[in-house]
TrEMBL record:
<dbReference type="GO" id="GO:0005975">
    <property type="term" value="P:carbohydrate metabolic process"/>
</dbReference>
<feature type="domain" description="NodB homology">
    <location>
        <begin position="187"/>
        <end position="302"/>
    </location>
</feature>
<feature type="signal peptide">
    <location>
        <begin position="1"/>
        <end position="18"/>
    </location>
</feature>
<protein>
    <submittedName>
        <fullName>Polysaccharide deacetylase</fullName>
    </submittedName>
</protein>
<dbReference type="InterPro" id="IPR011330">
    <property type="entry name" value="Glyco_hydro/deAcase_b/a-brl"/>
</dbReference>
<dbReference type="Pfam" id="PF01522">
    <property type="entry name" value="Polysacc_deac_1"/>
</dbReference>
<dbReference type="InterPro" id="IPR002509">
    <property type="entry name" value="NODB_dom"/>
</dbReference>
<keyword id="KW-0732">Signal</keyword>
<dbReference type="GO" id="GO:0016810">
    <property type="term" value="F:hydrolase activity, acting on carbon-nitrogen (but not peptide) bonds"/>
</dbReference>
Amino acid sequence: MRFFLMLLNLLYVGTVLAATDTEDTLDISGCSLVSAQVFKYPVDGLPYSGQLLSMSSSYDWSGATSSLLISQNVAQTTGTITKTLNETFSEDWGTLAIPVCHDSFIPANQNGGKIKISNGTVTVSIGGMKYLGGYHTVGGIGWHYIAAQDLVDAGFEEGDEVTISIKNSAIAPYSSYTGWGKLIKRAQGVPTIVLTFDDGGTGPWEQLDYTKDQNIKGTIFYPWDYEGLDGKLTVSELKELKEAGWDIELNGTSNDASMTSFDTAQETVDSLVEGREWLAENELNDYARFFAYPNGTYENHSSPIIKTDVSGEIGSAVVEMDDVSDIEVGMIAEARSFPKGTRVVKVNTRKNTVTLDNESLGVGRGGEELDEPSNYMSFVDDSDEFYTWKLQQKLKDAGFKIGRTTRPNTMYSRYCVGDYGLVAPSRGAFLSADDDPEEKVESWIADPQAAGTTTILYFHNILDEGAEGVNISIDTYRTWIDKLAEARDAGEIEVLTMQEWWERDCSDTSEEDSE
Protein backbone atom coordinates (compact mmCIF):
# COMPACT_ATOMS: atom_id res chain seq x y z
CA MET A 1 0.00 0.00 0.00
CA ARG A 2 2.88 2.37 0.73
CA PHE A 3 4.13 1.73 -2.80
CA PHE A 4 0.70 2.74 -4.09
CA LEU A 5 0.87 6.00 -2.13
CA MET A 6 4.35 6.69 -3.45
CA LEU A 7 3.09 6.10 -6.98
CA LEU A 8 0.27 8.59 -6.41
CA ASN A 9 2.84 10.97 -5.03
CA LEU A 10 4.88 10.83 -8.22
CA LEU A 11 1.77 11.44 -10.28
CA TYR A 12 1.26 14.74 -8.46
CA VAL A 13 3.72 16.50 -10.76
CA GLY A 14 3.04 20.22 -10.50
CA THR A 15 2.96 22.83 -13.16
CA VAL A 16 2.52 26.59 -13.06
CA LEU A 17 -0.47 28.10 -14.80
CA ALA A 18 0.76 30.28 -17.61
CA ALA A 19 -0.42 33.86 -17.91
CA THR A 20 -1.11 35.85 -21.02
CA ASP A 21 2.16 37.71 -20.42
CA THR A 22 4.90 35.11 -20.00
CA GLU A 23 7.54 36.03 -17.44
CA ASP A 24 10.71 34.23 -16.42
CA THR A 25 11.13 36.14 -13.18
CA LEU A 26 8.69 37.26 -10.58
CA ASP A 27 7.73 40.92 -10.47
CA ILE A 28 7.31 41.85 -6.83
CA SER A 29 6.40 45.51 -7.28
CA GLY A 30 3.96 46.45 -4.58
CA CYS A 31 5.27 43.82 -2.15
CA SER A 32 7.49 44.53 0.81
CA LEU A 33 11.17 43.67 1.00
CA VAL A 34 10.28 40.81 3.30
CA SER A 35 8.00 39.44 0.61
CA ALA A 36 10.76 39.84 -1.96
CA GLN A 37 13.12 37.83 0.18
CA VAL A 38 10.57 35.09 0.58
CA PHE A 39 10.13 34.80 -3.16
CA LYS A 40 13.88 34.98 -3.75
CA TYR A 41 14.92 32.18 -1.43
CA PRO A 42 12.88 28.94 -1.47
CA VAL A 43 14.44 27.89 1.83
CA ASP A 44 12.84 30.97 3.42
CA GLY A 45 9.44 30.41 1.91
CA LEU A 46 7.48 28.73 -0.80
CA PRO A 47 9.16 28.58 -4.22
CA TYR A 48 8.51 31.03 -7.02
CA SER A 49 8.17 30.06 -10.64
CA GLY A 50 11.62 31.04 -11.83
CA GLN A 51 13.22 28.63 -9.40
CA LEU A 52 10.91 25.66 -9.71
CA LEU A 53 12.83 24.04 -12.55
CA SER A 54 16.02 23.93 -10.51
CA MET A 55 14.38 23.01 -7.22
CA SER A 56 14.77 19.32 -6.53
CA SER A 57 12.10 17.63 -4.45
CA SER A 58 10.56 14.25 -3.84
CA TYR A 59 7.87 15.25 -6.32
CA ASP A 60 10.23 15.65 -9.29
CA TRP A 61 8.97 19.12 -10.12
CA SER A 62 8.77 19.99 -13.80
CA GLY A 63 6.75 22.51 -15.73
CA ALA A 64 6.60 25.96 -17.22
CA THR A 65 8.38 28.89 -15.64
CA SER A 66 5.75 31.47 -16.51
CA SER A 67 3.79 33.29 -13.85
CA LEU A 68 0.42 34.92 -13.59
CA LEU A 69 1.40 38.42 -12.53
CA ILE A 70 -1.15 40.76 -11.08
CA SER A 71 1.18 42.87 -9.02
CA GLN A 72 0.60 46.32 -10.47
CA ASN A 73 0.03 48.97 -7.89
CA VAL A 74 -3.55 49.97 -7.31
CA ALA A 75 -3.27 53.27 -5.48
CA GLN A 76 -6.99 53.90 -5.39
CA THR A 77 -9.24 52.75 -2.57
CA THR A 78 -10.75 50.17 -4.89
CA GLY A 79 -9.66 48.72 -8.18
CA THR A 80 -9.80 45.47 -10.12
CA ILE A 81 -7.10 43.74 -12.16
CA THR A 82 -8.06 40.85 -14.43
CA LYS A 83 -6.10 38.38 -16.55
CA THR A 84 -7.06 35.43 -18.71
CA LEU A 85 -5.03 32.24 -18.46
CA ASN A 86 -3.74 30.75 -21.68
CA GLU A 87 -4.37 27.27 -20.33
CA THR A 88 -7.97 26.08 -20.37
CA PHE A 89 -9.63 24.56 -17.34
CA SER A 90 -9.19 20.90 -16.47
CA GLU A 91 -10.30 18.81 -13.52
CA ASP A 92 -6.70 17.61 -13.42
CA TRP A 93 -5.68 20.97 -12.00
CA GLY A 94 -6.31 19.52 -8.55
CA THR A 95 -5.92 22.23 -5.93
CA LEU A 96 -4.92 25.76 -6.93
CA ALA A 97 -2.45 27.58 -4.70
CA ILE A 98 -2.63 31.36 -5.07
CA PRO A 99 -0.10 33.51 -3.18
CA VAL A 100 -1.23 37.04 -2.40
CA CYS A 101 1.09 39.69 -1.00
CA HIS A 102 -0.17 42.50 1.21
CA ASP A 103 2.24 45.37 1.47
CA SER A 104 0.88 46.86 4.66
CA PHE A 105 -0.74 45.58 7.80
CA ILE A 106 -4.23 44.21 7.14
CA PRO A 107 -6.43 44.63 10.23
CA ALA A 108 -9.06 42.08 11.13
CA ASN A 109 -11.91 44.21 9.83
CA GLN A 110 -10.40 44.47 6.33
CA ASN A 111 -10.52 41.52 3.95
CA GLY A 112 -7.58 42.69 1.86
CA GLY A 113 -9.20 42.13 -1.52
CA LYS A 114 -11.36 39.55 -3.24
CA ILE A 115 -10.11 36.88 -5.63
CA LYS A 116 -12.51 35.57 -8.26
CA ILE A 117 -12.24 32.81 -10.86
CA SER A 118 -14.64 32.86 -13.81
CA ASN A 119 -15.37 30.80 -16.93
CA GLY A 120 -17.50 33.58 -18.39
CA THR A 121 -20.72 32.12 -17.05
CA VAL A 122 -19.95 31.13 -13.48
CA THR A 123 -17.84 33.16 -11.06
CA VAL A 124 -16.42 31.67 -7.87
CA SER A 125 -14.96 33.77 -5.07
CA ILE A 126 -12.14 32.01 -3.28
CA GLY A 127 -13.24 31.73 0.30
CA GLY A 128 -16.89 31.73 -0.69
CA MET A 129 -16.92 27.99 -1.30
CA LYS A 130 -14.84 25.26 0.29
CA TYR A 131 -11.82 27.16 1.57
CA LEU A 132 -9.33 24.34 1.84
CA GLY A 133 -6.80 24.98 4.54
CA GLY A 134 -7.63 28.67 4.75
CA TYR A 135 -4.40 30.53 4.04
CA HIS A 136 -1.08 30.75 5.74
CA THR A 137 1.40 33.55 5.64
CA VAL A 138 5.11 33.25 4.98
CA GLY A 139 6.89 36.55 5.48
CA GLY A 140 3.90 38.55 4.27
CA ILE A 141 2.69 36.18 1.57
CA GLY A 142 -0.73 34.67 2.10
CA TRP A 143 -1.36 31.44 0.20
CA HIS A 144 -5.00 30.87 -0.72
CA TYR A 145 -6.27 27.52 -1.93
CA ILE A 146 -9.30 26.20 -3.79
CA ALA A 147 -9.98 22.73 -5.19
CA ALA A 148 -10.67 22.27 -8.91
CA GLN A 149 -13.53 20.00 -7.86
CA ASP A 150 -15.22 23.01 -6.28
CA LEU A 151 -15.05 24.75 -9.66
CA VAL A 152 -16.55 21.67 -11.32
CA ASP A 153 -19.34 21.65 -8.75
CA ALA A 154 -19.98 25.31 -9.53
CA GLY A 155 -20.34 24.63 -13.26
CA PHE A 156 -16.83 24.78 -14.74
CA GLU A 157 -16.22 22.33 -17.60
CA GLU A 158 -13.19 20.87 -19.36
CA GLY A 159 -11.75 23.35 -21.85
CA ASP A 160 -13.34 26.47 -20.35
CA GLU A 161 -11.36 29.68 -20.72
CA VAL A 162 -10.50 30.89 -17.23
CA THR A 163 -10.26 34.49 -16.06
CA ILE A 164 -8.79 35.46 -12.70
CA SER A 165 -9.45 38.83 -11.10
CA ILE A 166 -8.56 40.53 -7.86
CA LYS A 167 -10.46 43.49 -6.48
CA ASN A 168 -9.24 45.75 -3.74
CA SER A 169 -12.08 46.07 -1.31
CA ALA A 170 -10.49 47.47 1.82
CA ILE A 171 -10.20 51.06 2.96
CA ALA A 172 -6.98 52.70 1.74
CA PRO A 173 -4.15 52.18 2.45
CA TYR A 174 -5.05 48.59 3.15
CA SER A 175 -4.88 46.35 0.11
CA SER A 176 -3.55 49.21 -2.00
CA TYR A 177 -0.70 46.95 -3.04
CA THR A 178 -2.25 43.55 -3.21
CA GLY A 179 -0.85 41.40 -5.99
CA TRP A 180 -0.55 37.87 -7.27
CA GLY A 181 2.69 36.07 -7.79
CA LYS A 182 1.43 32.93 -9.50
CA LEU A 183 -1.00 30.08 -9.43
CA ILE A 184 0.32 26.60 -8.92
CA LYS A 185 -1.95 23.75 -9.82
CA ARG A 186 -1.84 20.34 -8.17
CA ALA A 187 -0.77 21.96 -4.92
CA GLN A 188 -2.08 19.06 -2.91
CA GLY A 189 0.20 16.28 -1.73
CA VAL A 190 -0.38 12.96 -0.03
CA PRO A 191 -2.93 13.29 2.80
CA THR A 192 -0.91 12.98 5.98
CA ILE A 193 -1.36 12.98 9.74
CA VAL A 194 1.53 13.49 12.15
CA LEU A 195 0.92 12.37 15.75
CA THR A 196 2.65 14.46 18.43
CA PHE A 197 2.63 14.20 22.22
CA ASP A 198 3.24 17.05 24.67
CA ASP A 199 4.44 17.36 28.27
CA GLY A 200 6.32 14.06 28.57
CA GLY A 201 3.56 11.89 30.05
CA THR A 202 4.11 8.12 30.12
CA GLY A 203 0.94 7.25 28.19
CA PRO A 204 2.57 6.79 24.76
CA TRP A 205 5.16 4.43 26.24
CA GLU A 206 2.53 2.47 28.19
CA GLN A 207 0.54 2.03 24.96
CA LEU A 208 3.59 1.22 22.84
CA ASP A 209 2.70 -2.43 22.29
CA TYR A 210 -0.70 -1.40 20.93
CA THR A 211 0.74 1.14 18.50
CA LYS A 212 3.43 -1.34 17.45
CA ASP A 213 0.74 -3.85 16.51
CA GLN A 214 -0.82 -1.24 14.23
CA ASN A 215 2.57 -0.02 12.96
CA ILE A 216 1.80 3.54 14.10
CA LYS A 217 4.56 5.85 15.31
CA GLY A 218 4.52 9.32 16.80
CA THR A 219 6.67 12.23 17.94
CA ILE A 220 7.40 13.17 21.56
CA PHE A 221 7.97 16.85 22.42
CA TYR A 222 9.86 16.41 25.69
CA PRO A 223 10.47 19.02 28.45
CA TRP A 224 13.95 17.87 29.47
CA ASP A 225 13.78 19.05 33.09
CA TYR A 226 10.94 16.55 33.61
CA GLU A 227 13.37 13.65 33.70
CA GLY A 228 12.91 11.80 37.00
CA LEU A 229 9.51 13.30 37.84
CA ASP A 230 6.63 10.98 38.69
CA GLY A 231 4.40 10.20 35.73
CA LYS A 232 6.93 11.50 33.21
CA LEU A 233 8.93 9.57 30.66
CA THR A 234 12.42 8.49 31.66
CA VAL A 235 15.41 8.44 29.33
CA SER A 236 15.15 4.66 29.21
CA GLU A 237 11.49 4.84 28.17
CA LEU A 238 12.27 7.51 25.58
CA LYS A 239 14.94 5.22 24.14
CA GLU A 240 12.40 2.41 23.87
CA LEU A 241 10.14 4.70 21.90
CA LYS A 242 13.03 5.76 19.69
CA GLU A 243 13.98 2.15 19.01
CA ALA A 244 10.37 1.55 17.95
CA GLY A 245 10.75 4.27 15.31
CA TRP A 246 9.36 7.21 17.27
CA ASP A 247 10.81 10.69 16.89
CA ILE A 248 12.06 12.39 20.08
CA GLU A 249 11.98 16.18 19.81
CA LEU A 250 11.78 19.17 22.17
CA ASN A 251 9.18 20.92 24.23
CA GLY A 252 9.74 24.64 23.74
CA THR A 253 11.13 25.01 27.27
CA SER A 254 12.66 22.67 29.82
CA ASN A 255 9.75 22.95 32.27
CA ASP A 256 6.79 23.64 29.94
CA ALA A 257 6.77 27.38 30.75
CA SER A 258 5.89 29.78 27.95
CA MET A 259 8.65 30.52 25.46
CA THR A 260 7.83 34.22 25.89
CA SER A 261 8.47 34.07 29.65
CA PHE A 262 12.21 34.71 29.28
CA ASP A 263 13.65 38.20 29.47
CA THR A 264 14.88 38.07 25.88
CA ALA A 265 14.18 36.03 22.78
CA GLN A 266 17.84 35.03 22.66
CA GLU A 267 17.56 33.48 26.13
CA THR A 268 14.61 31.44 24.88
CA VAL A 269 16.65 30.17 21.95
CA ASP A 270 19.70 29.47 24.12
CA SER A 271 17.53 27.37 26.41
CA LEU A 272 16.14 25.39 23.48
CA VAL A 273 19.67 24.79 22.19
CA GLU A 274 20.52 23.38 25.63
CA GLY A 275 17.58 21.01 25.21
CA ARG A 276 18.91 19.98 21.81
CA GLU A 277 22.25 19.20 23.43
CA TRP A 278 20.51 17.23 26.19
CA LEU A 279 18.78 15.03 23.62
CA ALA A 280 22.08 14.45 21.81
CA GLU A 281 23.95 13.62 25.02
CA ASN A 282 21.30 11.05 25.89
CA GLU A 283 21.42 9.56 22.37
CA LEU A 284 17.79 10.45 21.70
CA ASN A 285 18.28 12.82 18.75
CA ASP A 286 21.54 13.92 17.16
CA TYR A 287 20.27 17.36 16.14
CA ALA A 288 16.72 18.30 17.10
CA ARG A 289 15.07 20.82 14.79
CA PHE A 290 11.40 20.52 15.79
CA PHE A 291 9.66 21.75 18.93
CA ALA A 292 6.24 22.60 20.35
CA TYR A 293 5.28 25.95 21.90
CA PRO A 294 4.04 25.34 25.48
CA ASN A 295 0.39 26.40 25.65
CA GLY A 296 0.70 27.45 22.01
CA THR A 297 2.15 30.90 22.87
CA TYR A 298 4.66 32.04 20.25
CA GLU A 299 4.61 35.87 20.30
CA ASN A 300 3.45 38.99 22.11
CA HIS A 301 1.44 40.82 19.49
CA SER A 302 0.75 44.54 19.57
CA SER A 303 -2.49 45.75 17.99
CA PRO A 304 -2.16 48.73 15.63
CA ILE A 305 -3.37 52.20 16.50
CA ILE A 306 -5.53 53.38 13.60
CA LYS A 307 -5.83 57.07 12.65
CA THR A 308 -8.30 58.20 9.97
CA ASP A 309 -7.91 61.97 10.29
CA VAL A 310 -4.30 62.47 9.19
CA SER A 311 -3.22 65.56 7.26
CA GLY A 312 0.16 66.70 5.96
CA GLU A 313 2.04 68.25 3.06
CA ILE A 314 4.14 66.79 0.28
CA GLY A 315 7.83 67.07 1.11
CA SER A 316 7.25 67.24 4.85
CA ALA A 317 7.89 64.54 7.42
CA VAL A 318 5.28 65.97 9.78
CA VAL A 319 1.68 64.77 9.91
CA GLU A 320 -1.15 66.12 12.04
CA MET A 321 -4.16 64.36 13.57
CA ASP A 322 -6.82 64.94 16.21
CA ASP A 323 -5.07 63.05 19.01
CA VAL A 324 -1.49 61.78 19.33
CA SER A 325 -1.52 60.86 23.02
CA ASP A 326 -1.34 57.12 22.27
CA ILE A 327 1.55 57.38 19.79
CA GLU A 328 5.15 56.97 20.96
CA VAL A 329 8.58 57.64 19.49
CA GLY A 330 9.99 54.53 17.82
CA MET A 331 6.67 53.10 16.66
CA ILE A 332 6.32 51.77 13.11
CA ALA A 333 4.19 54.03 10.91
CA GLU A 334 2.22 52.41 8.07
CA ALA A 335 0.46 54.20 5.21
CA ARG A 336 0.20 54.13 1.44
CA SER A 337 2.17 57.33 0.96
CA PHE A 338 5.57 56.61 2.50
CA PRO A 339 8.11 53.77 2.47
CA LYS A 340 7.77 50.60 4.49
CA GLY A 341 9.86 50.70 7.65
CA THR A 342 9.08 54.35 8.42
CA ARG A 343 9.18 55.16 12.14
CA VAL A 344 8.07 57.92 14.49
CA VAL A 345 10.92 60.18 15.65
CA LYS A 346 8.95 62.89 17.47
CA VAL A 347 5.50 63.34 19.03
CA ASN A 348 4.17 66.82 19.84
CA THR A 349 1.11 66.46 22.07
CA ARG A 350 0.53 70.24 22.16
CA LYS A 351 0.24 70.55 18.37
CA ASN A 352 -1.02 66.99 17.85
CA THR A 353 1.70 66.31 15.29
CA VAL A 354 3.93 63.33 14.59
CA THR A 355 7.31 63.60 12.88
CA LEU A 356 8.46 60.63 10.79
CA ASP A 357 12.01 59.62 9.92
CA ASN A 358 11.63 60.46 6.21
CA GLU A 359 10.13 63.20 4.06
CA SER A 360 8.73 61.00 1.27
CA LEU A 361 5.08 61.67 1.93
CA GLY A 362 4.48 62.19 -1.77
CA VAL A 363 5.95 58.90 -2.96
CA GLY A 364 3.88 55.75 -2.80
CA ARG A 365 5.17 52.40 -1.66
CA GLY A 366 5.46 51.32 -5.27
CA GLY A 367 7.36 54.48 -6.28
CA GLU A 368 4.43 56.34 -7.84
CA GLU A 369 4.05 60.06 -7.23
CA LEU A 370 1.09 61.17 -5.15
CA ASP A 371 -0.67 64.52 -5.01
CA GLU A 372 -1.23 64.35 -1.26
CA PRO A 373 -0.23 62.17 1.69
CA SER A 374 -2.49 59.42 2.91
CA ASN A 375 -5.05 60.50 5.50
CA TYR A 376 -5.29 56.97 6.89
CA MET A 377 -2.41 55.65 8.97
CA SER A 378 -1.60 52.99 11.51
CA PHE A 379 1.05 52.92 14.22
CA VAL A 380 2.47 49.77 15.79
CA ASP A 381 4.68 49.30 18.83
CA ASP A 382 7.14 46.54 17.92
CA SER A 383 9.48 47.10 20.86
CA ASP A 384 8.45 43.97 22.76
CA GLU A 385 11.20 41.36 22.76
CA PHE A 386 8.69 38.81 21.50
CA TYR A 387 6.91 40.98 18.96
CA THR A 388 5.78 39.16 15.81
CA TRP A 389 8.56 37.11 14.21
CA LYS A 390 11.44 38.30 16.43
CA LEU A 391 11.65 34.98 18.27
CA GLN A 392 11.07 32.97 15.11
CA GLN A 393 13.93 34.68 13.29
CA LYS A 394 16.32 33.75 16.08
CA LEU A 395 14.99 30.19 16.15
CA LYS A 396 15.53 29.96 12.41
CA ASP A 397 19.08 31.26 12.77
CA ALA A 398 19.72 28.52 15.34
CA GLY A 399 18.66 25.83 12.86
CA PHE A 400 15.15 25.09 14.06
CA LYS A 401 12.66 24.30 11.30
CA ILE A 402 9.25 23.53 12.81
CA GLY A 403 7.60 25.12 15.84
CA ARG A 404 4.20 23.58 16.41
CA THR A 405 1.55 25.94 17.76
CA THR A 406 -1.99 25.08 18.83
CA ARG A 407 -3.61 27.24 16.15
CA PRO A 408 -6.21 24.95 14.55
CA ASN A 409 -5.60 24.26 10.88
CA THR A 410 -4.16 21.82 8.38
CA MET A 411 -1.19 22.62 6.11
CA TYR A 412 -0.37 22.36 2.43
CA SER A 413 3.15 21.00 2.64
CA ARG A 414 3.80 19.51 -0.78
CA TYR A 415 6.41 22.19 -1.47
CA CYS A 416 7.43 22.30 2.18
CA VAL A 417 6.19 25.11 4.42
CA GLY A 418 8.99 27.68 4.52
CA ASP A 419 9.11 30.03 7.47
CA TYR A 420 5.49 29.21 8.17
CA GLY A 421 6.78 26.01 9.74
CA LEU A 422 8.03 28.00 12.71
CA VAL A 423 4.41 28.78 13.61
CA ALA A 424 2.90 25.56 12.27
CA PRO A 425 -0.79 24.92 13.04
CA SER A 426 -2.14 21.73 14.57
CA ARG A 427 -5.29 20.19 15.97
CA GLY A 428 -5.90 18.84 19.45
CA ALA A 429 -6.85 15.17 19.61
CA PHE A 430 -8.80 15.51 22.85
CA LEU A 431 -12.59 15.41 22.83
CA SER A 432 -15.29 17.56 24.39
CA ALA A 433 -18.01 16.01 26.51
CA ASP A 434 -20.50 15.99 23.62
CA ASP A 435 -18.15 14.50 21.02
CA ASP A 436 -18.71 11.04 19.63
CA PRO A 437 -15.15 9.61 19.53
CA GLU A 438 -15.52 7.69 16.27
CA GLU A 439 -17.27 10.54 14.43
CA LYS A 440 -14.70 13.09 15.61
CA VAL A 441 -11.75 10.93 14.64
CA GLU A 442 -13.22 10.08 11.24
CA SER A 443 -13.98 13.73 10.46
CA TRP A 444 -10.47 14.86 11.29
CA ILE A 445 -8.93 12.10 9.21
CA ALA A 446 -11.20 13.09 6.31
CA ASP A 447 -9.96 16.70 6.37
CA PRO A 448 -6.44 16.09 4.98
CA GLN A 449 -7.89 13.47 2.64
CA ALA A 450 -10.12 16.07 1.02
CA ALA A 451 -7.40 18.68 0.63
CA GLY A 452 -4.19 16.69 0.22
CA THR A 453 -2.77 18.40 3.28
CA THR A 454 -0.80 17.52 6.38
CA THR A 455 -2.47 17.74 9.79
CA ILE A 456 -0.34 17.72 12.93
CA LEU A 457 -2.35 16.23 15.79
CA TYR A 458 -1.33 16.91 19.36
CA PHE A 459 -2.06 14.69 22.33
CA HIS A 460 -1.12 15.15 25.95
CA ASN A 461 -1.28 12.13 28.23
CA ILE A 462 -3.25 8.90 27.83
CA LEU A 463 -4.97 7.89 31.04
CA ASP A 464 -7.43 5.31 32.32
CA GLU A 465 -11.17 5.71 31.73
CA GLY A 466 -12.47 9.07 32.92
CA ALA A 467 -9.65 11.24 31.58
CA GLU A 468 -10.69 14.88 31.27
CA GLY A 469 -9.45 18.12 29.77
CA VAL A 470 -6.51 17.84 27.40
CA ASN A 471 -5.81 14.22 28.33
CA ILE A 472 -7.68 11.35 26.69
CA SER A 473 -8.75 7.91 27.78
CA ILE A 474 -7.09 4.71 26.62
CA ASP A 475 -10.26 3.78 24.71
CA THR A 476 -10.29 7.09 22.82
CA TYR A 477 -6.59 6.80 22.06
CA ARG A 478 -7.05 3.33 20.65
CA THR A 479 -9.95 4.60 18.54
CA TRP A 480 -7.54 7.10 17.03
CA ILE A 481 -4.91 4.43 16.39
CA ASP A 482 -7.40 1.95 14.89
CA LYS A 483 -9.01 4.52 12.58
CA LEU A 484 -5.65 5.87 11.44
CA ALA A 485 -4.36 2.37 10.70
CA GLU A 486 -7.56 1.56 8.80
CA ALA A 487 -7.29 4.68 6.61
CA ARG A 488 -3.58 4.11 6.03
CA ASP A 489 -4.07 0.46 5.04
CA ALA A 490 -6.80 1.53 2.62
CA GLY A 491 -4.31 3.84 0.91
CA GLU A 492 -6.20 6.95 1.99
CA ILE A 493 -3.63 8.59 4.25
CA GLU A 494 -0.08 8.41 5.55
CA VAL A 495 0.76 8.49 9.26
CA LEU A 496 4.26 9.84 9.84
CA THR A 497 6.57 11.15 12.52
CA MET A 498 7.75 14.76 12.30
CA GLN A 499 11.11 13.59 10.96
CA GLU A 500 9.53 11.34 8.32
CA TRP A 501 7.22 14.13 7.18
CA TRP A 502 10.09 16.61 6.97
CA GLU A 503 12.26 14.23 4.97
CA ARG A 504 9.41 13.61 2.53
CA ASP A 505 8.30 17.19 1.88
CA CYS A 506 11.13 19.45 2.98
CA SER A 507 14.55 17.85 3.06
CA ASP A 508 15.44 18.67 -0.55
CA THR A 509 14.30 22.28 -0.26
CA SER A 510 16.42 23.05 2.79
CA GLU A 511 19.89 24.54 2.59
CA GLU A 512 21.14 22.45 5.44
CA ASP A 513 19.11 19.65 6.94
CA SER A 514 21.55 18.73 9.66
CA GLU A 515 24.57 20.12 11.35
